[in-house]
């Protein structure tokens, strides 16, 4: 059955005041181009694309046993229509358990839930000097382990520390496997970052966090990203990264995209939750280890959009950061945009950027209750 939404529609060419007709795909966008939405009209935006999701609704990707169903539903209720299930550094058996559940969920997609694009393998091939909230069970990466894990569920993105022995060669091999190598959880130098990019690395994991910082005489991984990257992910919860640093990254990196790095406490009351093998506490809008270290976030993508707009980023640009750039990064050119033939992944928001409706591949999503 063909459905219709009306309002000011954000297309790749700009705003159109009118209506959009869709089933599971967009059939037509009809209306008049306008420079900006009116102050009182509904906003029709591309569904959000989140490439770094550890959990939500009390469930963690590492739980296995059906956790992905809960995670896909809770994030869809906040406007995320596509996501990458993100693992933690862990023994191989624990990662295999998580990957098997992701593979099951991908083979049996739920209507009205976020579409699972695959896996973001965050670790275990990271630096022990930049664990962040990752458990200290790191190891060197091999194509054999990556291949075995990818047989359980498709790995789309893999975070690694390029300065570790053999990892430049691994980056080259990942490209041939169709996996995007991201630089992250790294204590490497600027030169290590440039070497990784030259070897085929594609982006940076949660830019500024868990990587060697920028200093004017030692630019570090942050400097390599700002000087050379086309793509990088960033957590805009306004806890992980200062608004000034977000603005600097936007000026330097053409296709900066936002992620939540969401954990099991997302969409849940304050309290104690888990992140992989760690116990974490949700309070004051964030989630932390016992020593106060930020441990992922409880951000949702609708809030990410509001945060970007609150620091002065135009809505059209903010929508690119939470949808189109991420979709392009992983080669999903029929997602993250509203145009004829694309998947009907749609969010409808009020003028003050509150969700009114979400459609995931044309299926209506039950919104979160606030």
TrEMBL record:
The reply on keyword Isomerase is: no
Query: Hydrolase as a keyword?
Result: yes
| Cofactor(s) this protein cannot do without | a divalent metal cation
GO BP term (any one): N-acetylglucosamine catabolic process
Catalytic machinery residues: 261 (proton donor/acceptor)
The residues covered by the Amidohydrolase-related domain are: 43-365
User: InterPro entries per the record?
Assistant: Amidohydro-rel (IPR006680), GlcNAc_6-P_deAcase (IPR003764), Metal-dep_hydrolase_composite (IPR011059), Metal_Hydrolase (IPR032466)
What's the protein here called? N-acetylglucosamine-6-phosphate deacetylase
Residue positions binding Zn(2+): 122, 185, 206
Q: Where does substrate bind?
A: 133, 209-210, 217, 240, 294-296
Entry keywords, A to Z: Carbohydrate metabolism, Hydrolase, Metal-binding
Family annotation (Gene3D superfamilies): Metal-dependent hydrolases, Urease, subunit C, domain 1
Q: How is the cofactor bound?
A: Binds 1 divalent metal cation per subunit.
| NCBIfam families assigned | nagA (TIGR00221)
Q: Spell out the molecular function terms from Gene Ontology.
A: metal ion binding; N-acetylglucosamine-6-phosphate deacetylase activity
Q: Which family does this protein fall into?
A: Belongs to the metallo-dependent hydrolases superfamily. NagA family.
Q: What is the superkingdom listed in this entry's lineage? A: Bacteria
What PANTHER family does the entry give?
Answer: N-ACETYLGLUCOSAMINE-6-PHOSPHATE DEACETYLASE (PTHR11113)
């Amino acid at each position: 059955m063909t459905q219709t939404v009306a309002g000011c529609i954000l297309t790749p060419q700009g705003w159109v005041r009118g209506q959009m007709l869709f089933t599971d795909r967009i059939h037509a966008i009809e209306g008049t181009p306008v420079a900006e939405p009116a102050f009182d009209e509904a906003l029709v935006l591309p569904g959000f694309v989140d490439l770094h999701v550890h959990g939500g609704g009390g469930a963690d990707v590492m739980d296995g046993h059906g956790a992905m169903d809960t995670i896909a539903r809770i994030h869809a209720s906040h406007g995320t229509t596509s996501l990458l299930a993100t693992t933690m550094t862990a023994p191989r058996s624990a990662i295999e358990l998580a990957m098997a559940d992701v593979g099951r969920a991908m083979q049996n997609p739920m209507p009205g839930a976020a579409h699972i694009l695959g896996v973001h393998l965050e670790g275990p091939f990271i630096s022990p000097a930049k664990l962040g909230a990752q458990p200290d069970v790191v190891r060197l990466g091999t194509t054999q382990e990556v291949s075995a894990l990818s047989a359980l569920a498709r790995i789309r993105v893999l975070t690694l520390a390029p300065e570790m022995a053999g990892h430049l060669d691994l980056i080259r091999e990942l490209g041939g496997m169709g996996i995007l190598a991201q630089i992250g959880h790294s204590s490497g130098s600027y030169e290590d970052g440039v070497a990784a990019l030259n070897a085929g690395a594609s982006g940076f994991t949660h830019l500024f966090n868990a990587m060697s910082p920028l200093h004017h005489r030692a630019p570090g991984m942050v400097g390599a990203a700002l000087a050379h990257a086309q793509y990088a992910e960033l957590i805009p919860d306004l806890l992980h990264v200062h608004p000034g640093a977000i603005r600097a990254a936007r000026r330097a990196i053409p296709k900066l995209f936002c992620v939540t790095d969401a954990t099991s406490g997302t969409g849940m009351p304050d309290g104690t939750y888990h992140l992989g093998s760690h116990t974490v506490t949700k309070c004051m809008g964030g989630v932390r280890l016992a020593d106060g270290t930020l441990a992922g976030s409880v951000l949702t993508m609708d809030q990410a959009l509001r945060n970007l707009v609150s620091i002065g980023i135009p809505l059209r640009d903010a929508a690119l950061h939470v949808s189109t750039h991420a979709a392009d990064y992983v080669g999903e050119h029929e997602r993250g945009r509203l145009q004829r033939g694309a998947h009907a992944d749609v969010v409808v928001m009020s003028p003050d950027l509150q969700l009114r409706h979400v459609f995931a591949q044309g299926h209506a999503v039950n919104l979160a209750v606030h």
